[in-house]
Design brief:
The chain is of the alpha/beta class. It has one domain. It contains 17 helices and eight strands. Helix 2 runs antiparallel to helix 6. InterPro entries: P-loop_NTPase.
Length: 425
């Protein structure tokens, strides 16, 4: 199983260029704009799981699937990929209660399919695939990979398998519903809101409650789950992920210029403002008083923690420490390739060796736009200064967590290189 492939694009870490190259690394690419995947007959030659001679055709998809967010005071956060509502706070709850109902937004990954041969890139958090992975794929994963769940909780194991079956319930009613039944239909905005309120929300809450009870039993059996929370689920999912990590100080400085914070007469080395300026709101959860580094630092962790982490954080069900630990567990175990921005060539080499269907040697689609941030030699020198970095770590603790996560990524990257060198001999 080499697909779906998902590139988790952390903002200001080279993601725009990487997405273009991934789009161009297919066979028979003739289109002029990399993100318009339906404009040509490109394909990725994906080896069949059961045969060394048979191939399937994978297709590229950019930002085709929505992000799923908690409603805050009735409103949804706007995102590039568009946003759908989801109140579930566990990965398993999101699989069942929050399906993406936009039919066939990405080719080769239909809602009623038993496979997903999609090469996906977007601005989505890790875990955003839970609503769009086909239920048949998820059910096979649950019954095969999590077969031991029967030994932990037989009732939950069988009930959840049934929840993943879109054919097990034939109608929505007030006591039992299955949002996925409506995913194969074209639903209007009003119908979707009705399904959300009468079906998705109560179903998500019910599965969340069951999942938490089940997870307490899992944590008794698996030490990894006690430390890294739901990363055990993410690392076991039938997907292949890759990401690019950037050293946090240069990333934060890039964010500073990209978001035009300098235009508000706030210098890059104003640590107090970075820690808690209150006249500009950059916070993920829209609280006043959070500084821009706190906000971007939280976003950095959330990209790697999982989309459900944001819902838990907004519901005051978790804290930064737990988010950082789950993100660490995902970086350690949830990615097939972890790249480092200071070695992009090495990243593409790792992708080619890990996945046989990429060819980065003959990139045909020109780069039509670069997402470059502004710059300042004075600010660069300041953010490279160890004394200044220590002041940031001391005043803004999330910086230390970002730094630790990057160091974990370096460790994982080195291990993966050794592993690939050994496997390719």
């Amino acid at each position: 199983m080499e697909t779906p492939f998902i590139f988790v694009h952390i903002g200001k870490a080279g993601g725009g260029e990487i997405r273009r190259k991934i789009a161009s690394a297919a066979d028979d690419v003739t289109r002029n704009q990399w993100y318009k995947a339906r404009d040509d007959q490109h394909f990725y030659p994906i080896k069949d799981d059961k045969s060394k001679t048979k191939f399937s055709r994978g297709r590229f998809c950019n930002s085709g699937w929505r992000n799923h967010r908690l409603r805050i005071n009735g409103d949804l956060e706007g995102t590039f990929e568009e946003t759908a509502a989801c109140g579930a706070t566990t990965p398993l709850g999101r699989m069942v209660a929050c399906p993406d109902r936009r039919k066939d937004r990405c080719e080769e990954c239909a809602i009623d399919s038993d496979s997903c041969r999609t090469i996906y890139t977007g601005h989505n958090y890790l875990g955003s695939e839970l609503p769009w992975l086909p239920p048949k794929v998820l059910k096979r994963w649950w019954t095969d990979v999590w077969s031991f769940s029967k030994e932990i909780d037989t009732n939950f194991s069988s009930t959840f398998a049934s929840d993943l079956d879109i054919t097990s319930v034939n109608a929505i009613n007030d006591t039992h519903c299955k949002p996925n039944l409506h995913s194969v239909l074209k639903v209007g905005r009003m119908t979707e809101r009705w399904i959300e309120e009468r079906c998705s929300d109560p179903l998500g809450a019910s599965i969340d409650t069951q999942t938490k009870m089940f997870w307490e039993k899992v944590e008794e059996k698996i030490a990894h789950s006690r430390r890294y929370k739901y990363s055990t689920i993410y690392s076991s999912l039938p997907v292949r992920r890759a990401t690019m990590m950037r050293e946090p100080y240069s990333l934060l400085l890039s964010k500073y210029f990209w978001q035009n914070i300098n235009s508000h007469n706030k210098s890059c080395d104003d640590i107090e403002y970075a820690a808690g300026g209150n006249d500009i709101k950059y916070s993920i959860n829209h609280d006043e008083g959070e500084g821009w580094i706190n906000s971007f630092g939280l976003e950095y962790l959330l990209y790697l923690c999982g989309e459900e982490c944001l819902a838990r954080y907004q519901n005051n069900m978790t804290d930064i420490d737990e988010i950082a630990l789950q993100a660490e567990g995902n970086v350690r175990h949830g990615f097939a390739v972890v790249g480092l921005l200071n070695d992009t060539d090495g990243f593409y080499d790792m992708l080619e060796r890990r996945f046989g269907y990429f060819d980065f040697k003959n990139i045909s689609i020109a780069n039509d736009a670069r997402h470059r941030s502004g710059s300042s030699n004075e600010c660069k020198a300041k953010f490279l200064n160890e004394t200044f970095q220590e002041a940031l770590r001391t005043r803004i603790p999330i910086v230390k967590k970002m730094e630790h996560l990057y160091n974990v990524a370096v460790e994982v990257n080195q291990f993966q290189r050794i592993e690939l060198d050994t496997c390719n001999k």
